[in-house]
Design brief:
By secondary structure, this protein is an alpha+beta fold. The protein contains 12 helices and 28 strands. Strands 4, 5, 6, 8, 9 and 14 form a 6-stranded antiparallel β-sheet that branches. Strands 17-18-19-20-22-21 form a 6-stranded mixed β-sheet, covered by helices on one side. The protein has a 5-stranded mixed β-sheet with strand order 3-2-1-15-16. Helix 7 runs parallel beside helix 8. The longest helix has 24 residues.
């Protein structure tokens, strides 16, 4: 199997995509300015305590107050095998407190935070305030589990804790000790910075996207890494040199004239992720619907009529759907409660087989999930831990014309598609590109200076003209190349910057 990671940055965004045999399996996007708040530690102030909800709401300088469950303690680390305890101090309005984001804000909901801080390394997670010793469930060798837990126990002080991550399987005692000391230094620096920091300050920020991916996901001997941006390439290369299990020889700087995602056939795959209808290989399809409370998948046979009886036709479709649903929640990074309305099956053994197929497919995902038994209505509920922001927040935005119930392609994703079209235009030998697009989108591109890096570099000797149209839908645009010395353009045309 061909395993490849692709890193790129443009329009103020960093993008990481993982593909197996050319098919996208995982994708992450991060705003370079704001980053991902998940894992960040903030100095906050208690806005109010709600005893009836056993929760406090904390002002952390975000748009909405953060939600802090009281007396949650070590239970937030229950996804790992282990035991532990912690004590939560009584809080009252006005108290200052350090909290860590454990669930990013979404929609109208503020971030969920915890006072049980954690500092994540490649092999270990350090818990400075939680008496907890845990280990990844993916480490199944009982003797090795016992040895690793003993080593982790030696590294902590009373009241502290460690979680042994899956990558620790290949770590030496010395490596574990070095990483534990490093994480403790980061913790001390964070606590020191918090002393004089004003309320609302992020006193610790999680790693940026490439560092997180290389820390958590890379390590397979067969994986190859392609990087489309020069600055990002140097950063990834420096990180690779620090990894004995990766090495710089597998880091490739993409220098093609077209968009890297376009050149490797990923563009169209990314575009399909904006469609709520997902086609299956046999002609059947899924329909995805996002709600405030959960995400719903509906399974349909579509054009697939099978080749024998109805029950076997339905079983084959549901089995295929189970695998694709697991892939879709991983690619789109869908978290929370997910409901699947499978096609009705009469046989109990078939329901069990579909549930088992879904569990097996989800087990390949880094994110933790839990599948409930299928109901008599052939509806399955499962939960999945969201590792970062949903990909839909990058690809889509709420439609302002239908009371925000529908979605349009987002401005940043439209800019990405226009950028790809411009690169293709220049790759075909043209020195000028003329873009016709929606006026509001043009104003957004100009005000946000989405293509400033390209104009200062690869496009410095090119000409790019924007022609706005008030009648164009937001998702409509066209790009054409031209090599004429003098172009005939309407008075509304504007040169890019």
């Amino acid at each position: 199997m061909k395993k490849e990671w692709f890193f790129d940055r443009f329009c103020g965004e960093q993008i990481a995509i993982y593909a197996e045999d050319g098919k996208i399996v995982e994708a992450s996007v991060e705003d370079e300015k704001q980053g991902d708040v998940l894992g960040n530690i903030y100095k906050g102030r208690v806005a109010n305590v709600v005893p009836g909800m056993q929760a406090a709401f904390i002002s952390c300088g975000m748009e909405r107050n953060c939600y802090l469950p009281l007396n949650e303690g070590a239970s937030i680390f229950s996804s790992y095998d282990g035991r532990g305890k912690s004590s939560s101090a009584e809080l009252k309005a006005g108290d200052e407190i350090l909290v860590q984001v454990v669930k990013a804000p979404r929609g109208t909901k503020g971030a969920k935070v915890s006072s049980e801080l954690s500092f994540v390394g490649k092999d270990l997670i350090f818990l400075p305030r939680t008496d907890f010793l845990g280990i990844s469930r993916k480490i199944t060798d009982e003797r090795l589990r016992e040895e690793l837990l003993k080593e982790a126990d030696k590294l902590r002080e009373p009241g502290q804790g460690f979680i042994v991550r899956t990558a620790a399987v290949s770590a030496t005692r010395r490596a574990l000790k070095i990483e534990s000391e490093y994480l403790k230094r980061i913790c001390r620096a964070t606590l020191e910075a918090a002393k004089n920091a004003p309320v609302g300050t992020a006193v610790y920020r999680e790693c940026e996207l490439p560092i997180k991916v290389m820390r958590d996901s890379l390590g397979d001997a067969d994986v190859k890494v392609y990087v489309g941006d020069g600055e990002l390439y140097e950063k990834v290369l420096r990180l690779a040199r620090m990894r004995s299990d990766l090495g710089e020889k597998r880091i490739v700087r993409y220098t093609g004239s077209r968009s890297m995602f376009n050149a490797y056939g990923l563009d169209e795959q990314i575009f399909t992720l904006t469609d709520p209808q997902i086609k299956l290989d046999n002609g059947a399809y899924l329909v995805l619907d996002r709600t405030e409370a959960m995400t719903v998948f509906d399974v349909n046979t579509g054009k697939y009529t099978g080749d024998s009886d109805l029950e076997s036709t339905v079983l084959k479709t549901n089995l295929l759907a189970a695998k694709e649903i697991a892939r879709q929640v991983r690619i789109r990074n869908i978290g929370g409660i997910i409901a699947v309305d499978f096609i009705d099956m009469a046989e109990e053994e078939h329901r069990l087989a579909v549930t088992a197929a879904l569990e097996a497919a989800l087990s390949e995902d880094r994110a933790k999930s839990r599948v409930l038994p299928m109901s008599d209505l052939c509806v399955t509920l499962f939960t999945r831990k969201r590792l970062s922001g949903e990909l839909s927040s990058f690809l889509l935005k709420p439609c302002s014309h239908c009371t925000r119930q529908g979605y349009l392609l987002s401005d940043i994703y439209m800019a990405m598609r226009i950028r790809t079209a411009i690169l293709n235009c220049f790759a075909e030998g043209y020195r000028a590109a003329v873009i016709e697009l929606n006026r509001a989108l043009m104003n957004k591109i100009l005000s946000e200076r989405y293509f400033s890096d390209e104009l200062a570099g690869a496009w410095s000797d090119k000409r790019i003209y924007l022609i706005p149209h008030t009648a164009f839908p937001e998702e409509k645009f066209s790009v054409r190349g031209d090599n004429a010395q003098i172009l005939t353009l309407p008075d509304t045309a504007q040169i890019l910057y």
